[in-house]
């Protein structure tokens, strides 16, 4: 069955960096767009970034463009999110999701990123 | 881009129907037939319930249906059941190849 498992979250100070990973299984990873979506504590969902099958097409929400970098390794069936210059507003559960062309059809359980001094 | 507008909460008794509107603008909901809906139970990951306005993934009960008129999409839950109590979010593809989510609606089964 389709599985997505995020890792790499934790507590960091403002201005620091963090790299999230999403290990996948149960589907042909290289054939799908992949995305990151976040949810601040007690708040709604916010799309962060999407990447196409061969990494040639990448999109970001305005608030992270220039600070975050999405990438993938099709051989390892893994998705990544490199986050730099983190601020308190980036505190959230970060979900890895399959899709990004028109919908997100499978989601991981999320990894919590807390940015606090 | 601004979040799509949803009511904070809706409620209904078991067996009744509830409809959740999701209002955007012409460059998101109104401009594309790529509206999807997600159900999220407390502490859980979101689950896709409807995509491309009115299509259901395999395994989603046909009690869940979607529609769209102009800049407003809607999710209707017919024959409300206790397990339908959750938060629901709409999402639309938007211009400049981005996605925008709705503000979220808490569905309460009375």
Task: Describe the fold and architecture.
The complex is a heterodimer of chains A (117) and B (110). Chain A is 0% helix and 52% strand. Chain A is mainly beta and 117 residues long. Chain A is globular, with a radius of gyration of 13 Å. The model of chain A has no long low-confidence stretch (mean pLDDT 97). In chain B, the strands form two sheets. In chain B, strands 1, 3, 4, 7, 8 and 9 form a six-stranded mixed sheet that branches. A three-stranded antiparallel sheet of chain B has the order 2-6-5, with no helix packed on it. In chain B, strand 5 (64-69) and strand 6 form a beta hairpin. The interface between A and B is medium-sized, with 22 and 26 residues.
Task: Spell out the blueprint of helices and strands.
The complex is a heterodimer of chains A (117) and B (110).
Chain A: E1 3-7, E2 10-12, E3 18-25, E4 34-39, E5 45-51, E6 58-60, E7 68-73, E8 78-83, E9 92-99, E10 104-107, E11 111-115
Chain B: E1 9-12, E2 18-23, E3 35-40, E4 47-50, E5 64-69, E6 72-77, E7 86-94, E8 98-101, E9 105-109
Parallel strand pairs in B: 1-9
Antiparallel strand pairs in B: 2-6, 3-4, 3-7, 5-6, 7-8, 7-9
Distance between the termini of chain B: 35 Å
Sheet with most strands of chain B? 6 strands, mixed
What average pLDDT do the residues of chain A reach? 97
Q: What would you call the shape of chain B? A: globular
**Structural class from helices and strands of chain B?**
mainly beta
Distance between termini of chain A? 40 Å
Order of helices and strands of chain B: EEEEEEEEE
Helicity level of chain B, as a percent range? under 10%
- Give the overall form of chain A: globular
Helix content of chain A: under 10%
- Record field, number of beta strands of chain A: 11
Low-confidence stretches of chain A: none
Name the quaternary structure. Answer: heterodimer
The total count of helices of chain B amounts to: 0
In total, the number of strands of chain B is 9
Global mean pLDDT of chain B? 96
Strand-and-helix sequence of chain A, N→C?
EEEEEEEEEEE
């Amino acid at each position: 069955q389709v599985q997505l498992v995020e890792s790499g979250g934790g507590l960091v100070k403002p201005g620091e960096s963090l790299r999230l990973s999403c290990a996948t299984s149960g589907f042909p990873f290289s054939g799908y767009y992949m995305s990151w979506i976040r949810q601040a504590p007690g708040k709604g969902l916010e799309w962060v970034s999407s990447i196409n099958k061969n990494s040639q097409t990448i999109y970001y929400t305005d608030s992270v463009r220039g600070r975050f970098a999405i990438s993938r390794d099709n051989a390892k069936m893994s998705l990544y999110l490199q986050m730099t210059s983190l601020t308190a507003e980036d505190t959230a559960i970060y979900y890895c999701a399959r899709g990004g062309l028109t919908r997100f059809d499978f989601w991981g359980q999320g990894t919590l990123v807390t940015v606090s001094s | 881009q601004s979040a799509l507008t949803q009511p904070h909460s809706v409620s209904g008794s078991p067996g009744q129907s509830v409809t959740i509107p999701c209002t955007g603008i012409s460059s998101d909901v109104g401009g594309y037939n790529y509206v999807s809906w997600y159900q999220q139970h407390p502490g859980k990951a979101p689950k896709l319930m409807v995509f491309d306005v009115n299509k259901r993934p395999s395994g989603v009960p046909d009690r869940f249906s979607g529609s769209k008129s102009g800049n407003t999409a809607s999710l209707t839950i017919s024959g409300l059941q206790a397990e339908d109590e959750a938060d629901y979010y709409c999402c639309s593809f938007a211009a400049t190849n981005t996605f925008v989510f709705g503000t979220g609606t808490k569905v309460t089964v009375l």
